Here is the input.
Amino acid sequence: MRIVFLLLLFSFSIKAQKKANFKSAEKFSQKNLSKMLKSTSVSPKWFKESDKFWYSYTTTSGKNFYIVDPTKRSKSKLFDNLEFAAKLSDLTRKPINHNDLELEEIELDKDNRTLRFQIDSIGYKYDIYDKSIAIGDTISEEEEEDWATYAPDSSYIVFAKDHNLFLMEVGDKDSVEIQLSNDGDRWFSYQRKHGDTTSEKRMKARAAWFKDSKKLYSNRSDSRKVDELFVINTLNKPRPELEVYKYAMPGEMNVPQEYLEIFNISDKSKIDVEVKKYIDQTISLHLTQKNSDRLYMTRLNRTSDTLDVSYVNTSDGSINFLFEDVNHPYHNWNYRQLAVINEGKELIYWSEKNGWGQLYLYDGNTGRLKNKITNGGYFITGRIQDIDTLGRKVYYQSFGREKDIDPYYSMIYSSNFDGSGMKLLTREKFNHKVNFSESSKYFVDNYSSVDHLPTSLLRDVSGNIIMKLEEADLSLLYHAGWKMPERFKVKADDGITDLYGVMYKPFDFDPNKKYPIISYVYPGPQVESFRNDFTISGRYNTALAQLGFIVVSMGHRGGSPMRSKYYHTFGYQNLRDYALADDKRSLEQLAERYTWIDLDKVGIFGHSGGGFMSTAALLSYPDFYDVACSSAGNHDNNIYNKWWSETHNGIEAVYNKNKDDDEENEELSWDAKIKTNQSLAKNLKGYLLLTHGNMDNNVHPTNTLRVADELIKEGKRFDMMIFPGKRHGYGDFRSYYEKMMWYYFSEHLLGDYRNNIDINLPDSNK
Here is the structure.
């Protein structure tokens, strides 16, 4: 009887095991799906001083090039592909695929008729009116001059060499190099890559021209006192090589210091601008449209809650203060904007001072607030898309104004400078991305959502549709069996706040079955994990779902600046835990809503901040989450970069009194302590996969190793993979990591242990 019982038990366990559909996951991996997807948007290339534009677009019928004239409401092919390919073949004596013309570095000349392009580093010229093609210049890597920054009038080139700034006349590569500076240093460099030790090679400069070409400026960062950090290139031959870089961490005293210098081209003089106002400030610079008399500037303090707007008199370096904006707990760096209008007579400034990101009009000479531009309710104004100075209109993104539209959808509006005439220009209830003509009379509107076909329209500035340009061709995807993901809405852990998300199902979904659920996460607060526009894969999500999972990604309080200031700052001073309760409660609601979700089998994964969050969730709710795959996680934000950790968790200036030679002084220090994942190591009950690139110079691999260290001390079993030679992204090891996740979730959520010795697909018949 015992043998029979054991056989029955064995039989039951075999039936309980579910086989992962690795074949389907591979078929619908991001790599394979991308082969089936053609163009999804129109990127207009506007003619100079014209409303005409050209673009290329690919469908299953091939790649075509079009020219559009909005004034005539016409669209025609830029050339006949067969004829064009034949002419090219005649010139090159090589076969040319007319269905997929691989033209590189395509650019329309200022004459609005000569289209320049390259094939195999050979330059060609095509006359769009007489349809002729001629051979142009041969392009070599040395001649590309990627080190050169040209003056707007093409008179001079500025570049860096040996960390200093140099100038030379255009047209003669052998012309005399004029040295503009002599104070450059490796960590206080005029080179874009100031860590580069090359001394003789010309390099791109940390400098920019004024629009009139009379002056240029350089905004340098002095990191000489900043502590060093190290990664080891283990794959360097013959010996591993140490890579050294500067990296400021939260609370440290020695952080980068910013400087501003103005160079006058006529006499080659330099002005050192005394920009310092706040301790350890960061600055950003904004040019006027034509002149070099002024340079507008914002200065942000180290605690990121106070910002001032000023302008620099470039003749003498003096600074004219205009106004200060105090925003607690911190300024939203995602949408922070300053637009200089009419040579500085007026400024358009973005601020969250009323709790919702809005646009304001200021006097550029006095700093006086003239009026609020974006009136009409409580909503978020996003990026400025275009400014019509003559018509005194501004065109901008907005989120959440229309109550019946997903608040994450970018809708395009216009308003007059005086705050009147606010108008919705894109009425379709999808996410809109636009590109305006130079005249501000027309714009191309690309709209989509995760569950709607990408569509491209040409509109006038009143929002009227001039013509439909394109609609994405998804025929190959549909033929393969691909389906769009689904949107959903749940409540946050407070039971009040609406959260939005996207769900990915197996394409052979059966509502009568039970599926484990996996959450793909990213904590923000600058962006959330789910897509609001069209996606074929949702990164890893589509393929992962095909194994036999329900995969979801959703927002949470503290996740996105597209919502209110309260929403996106929810995680302030709680950088480890703020997103966790909302993710857990969202999964519970979905399981309550759908009987086919198995809440006894819950996985979670993410990269970078998502790696941090997925591990934190597994360790904070060990009886809820069963499996986590955490890649390149910033598990200890005390050793992550200064600006991100200090801004989003907070930092406090501490003044300590001390006596020196019977004299009492105040000494400044900074307090920035953030809760870590390694402190939760004792809570591990489920399965944890940690991965990291050993050359990650963004999130240092120490973040993962410290978690591993504590897990070992607590006697916990876990899995870890260090990818040799890889940085923050895994590059060509991404596919390897993806299959690691497939196996890990399949083993621990489905009970499918058909692991091959190699990372490849198991035989589905075994």
Summary: The radius of gyration is 29 Å.
